[in-house]
Amino acid sequence: MDSSVPIRVFLVDDHAVVRSGMRAFFEMVDDIEVVGEAGDGEAALAVLAGLDELPDVVLMDLLMPRLDGIGATRAIKQLYPRVQVVALTSFSEAERVHVALEAGAAGYLLKDAEADQVGAAVRAATRGQVHLDPAVARTLTRSLAGPARTSAALTPREREILVHVAQGRSNRDIASELMISERTARTHVSAVLGKLGLESRTQAALWAVREGLVSDA
User: Fold this and answer.
1) Which comes out higher in pLDDT, residue 28 or 201?
2) How far, in Å, CA of 58 to CA of 47, rounded?
3) CA separation for the pair 212, 200 (Å, rounded)
4) What's the pLDDT score for residue 16?
5) Structural domains of the chain, with CATH
6) What is the average pLDDT across 181-208?
């Protein structure tokens, strides 16, 4: 995206004080602007439907009345695939994080995250990368309960593919970087998941962090 154009952010949280705090922070940041807000998932979907220009990123609280953040994230990703969602909550249980990420969230932050972490998550989301609060990443990597397989099960090319997946790159990006076809990239990703006994790209990224192939910083 054009770096001269501010990243458009939409805030969804049932606590007005949290939304006000987020607005105050983003007003001090040159490359991010708040373009709207809502107090729950249903209200967010209604407001988004009426916007002339969609936001780039939605900061989404998970625990809200009417429609919670998980349901709202799923709906947004179905209706507006190009809009990225960063989950924001006061909970760090691995199961809740997994559900949010599988729903389509491009990041997960705790509400006590430092301001620069919030900004980093928003920017990462616009680049198609998954950004996890460091504490959340540590919790998730410890929680992976798949077979005790190592990267030795992978070919050198598959390890290279895995690192790209962990960095949030799409099959198209991987194909372009490695000068292979998108179909070949997709085949390699499927092979990596199969050999490691994993079900998703998110799990593959977390596995790579746990094995030290990439950093969770």
Assistant:
1) 28
2) 12
3) 19
4) 92
5) 7-142 (3.40.50.2300), 144-210 (1.10.10.10)
6) 84
Q: Which of 46, 43, 49, 35 is nearest to 14 (CA)?
A: 43
- CA separation (Å) from 125 to 40, 150, 165, 175? 21, 29, 14, 20
- Predicted confidence (pLDDT) at residue 198 exceeds the cutoff of 90: no
Q: Would the pLDDT of 82 be above 70? A: yes
pLDDT tens for each residue of 150-181 = 667 788 899 899 988 887 778 888 998 899 99
pLDDT at 97: 78
Separation between Cα atoms, residue 126 and residue 115, nearest integer Å: 17
Q: Is the dihedral of CA 35, 50, 14, 121 positive or negative?
A: negative
Q: What angle do CA 19, 135, 27 make, to 5 degrees?
A: 25
Q: Whose CA is closest to 110, among 141, 145, 68, 139?
A: 139
Q: Which residues contact 68 (CB under 8 A, 6 or more apart)?
A: 41, 62
Beta-carbon-side half-sphere exposure of residue 74 (alpha carbons within 13 Å) = 8
